[in-house]
């Protein structure tokens, strides 16, 4: 894979768009609690709703739609029911399971404490490694990312995560499963 031109020059996410039930509450949470700057607001034509954008850093944005007639939330289908470790977190095909924000490793535990101080319920810290359980009780050189989960006021599953090492070709070693594998026993 030398100096080949990429098929597309993707530079990150322009934005990820979610749907909220209350734009004011969403602005209060993402702008006030998480500190993401609100960078663009749109009232959609013909009373269709609103579309607001927050700066998520690195040229990436997190956007929200507010529709006056959107269907109610469908936890367990369109989104996880709970935070991992506190209940069922599987969601349906085509759903958005969670949004993970990249945070600096040296600020990781401080950021968790800040969220808790602001009244946000946060899950325990998870040290992800390549062990059978994929979780390490204690830090070791094989931990490649640390994270913790929490939810926004609409129950959208969020995560703060920090990479701890660079990936190598050895990190890509699993064959992708297919639709036919969905109901087959996993070996």
Automatic annotation (TrEMBL):
SUPFAM superfamilies xref list = Glyoxalase/Bleomycin resistance protein/Dihydroxybiphenyl dioxygenase
Every VOC domain range: 12-163
The domain of life for this entry's organism is: Bacteria
Please give the name of this protein.
VOC family protein
């Amino acid at each position: 894979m030398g100096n080949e031109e990429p098929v597309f020059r993707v530079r990150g996410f322009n934005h990820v768009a979610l749907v909220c039930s209350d734009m004011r509450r969403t602005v209060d949470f993402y702008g006030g609690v998480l500190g993401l700057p609100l960078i663009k607001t749109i009232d959609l034509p013909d009373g269709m709703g609103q579309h607001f954008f927050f700066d998520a850093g690195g040229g990436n944005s997190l956007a929200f739609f507010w529709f006056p007639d959107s269907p109610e939330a469908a936890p367990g289908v369109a989104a996880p029911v709970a935070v991992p470790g506190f209940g069922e977190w599987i969601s349906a095909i085509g759903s958005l399971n969670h949004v993970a924000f990249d945070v600096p490793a040296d600020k990781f535990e401080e950021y968790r404490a800040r969220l808790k101080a602001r009244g946000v319920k946060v899950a325990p810290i998870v040290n992800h490694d390549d062990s059978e359980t994929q979780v390490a009780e204690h830090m070791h050189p094989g931990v490649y990312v640390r994270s913790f989960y929490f939810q926004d006021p609409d129950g959208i599953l969020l995560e703060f995560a920090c990479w701890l090492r660079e990936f190598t070709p050895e990190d890509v070693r699993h064959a992708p499963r297919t639709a036919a594998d969905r109901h087959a026993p996993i070996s």
